[in-house]
Amino acid sequence: MRTSLTVRELTKATWSDFEVVMGANGGARGCWCMHWRLSIDE
Fold it and tell me: What does the alpha-carbon distance between residue 32 and residue 20 come to, in Å, rounded to a whole number?
């Protein structure tokens, strides 16, 4: 089985797609926060 991936900019128009990817409860036990991926300088 082959699956393709499409990457799009997150905008108001694509927000519902983002919600589908993250799931009803968020990506990490209900948290969509990604601040932990950034360094202090970022």
Answer: 12
Asked if 26 and 32 touch (Cβ cutoff 8 Å), the reply is yes
pLDDT class of 19 with cuts at 50, 70, 90: confident
Distance CA 9, CA 15 (A): 9
For residue 38, give the amino acid letter.
L
Residue 24 CA to residue 27 CA, distance in Å, equals 9
* 8 A C-beta contact, residue 42 and residue 34: no
Q: Are 30 and 22 in contact (CB under 8 A)?
A: no
Tokens of 36: 């932990």
Q: What is the pTM of this model?
A: 0.52
